[in-house]
Design goal:
90 residues; 66% helix; single chain; mainly alpha
Amino acid sequence: MVKGLKFLYANPNEAAEIAKKQFPTMALADLKPRSTARSSDQMWSKDGMISKEAWATGSAVVREAGILKTDVKYEEIIDMSFVESVRASL
């Protein structure tokens, strides 16, 4: 995931070409905005980390929908040590 994010941000055109292989019937022009827009709209982390704020938002959404019935603290469900390890090795 970390390597993929790094590649996406460094190579948006090449990322669109890869997306074209997964969605061969879509025009490349249609894939470029989709493959890069999600990476540039601050919705997704550029480094693979999940922040406490991101978990708070996600948790609120699933709690409101009734999917998650109890409050789960960030530390109980999120462990970023593997991402931190990979990032340190890159």
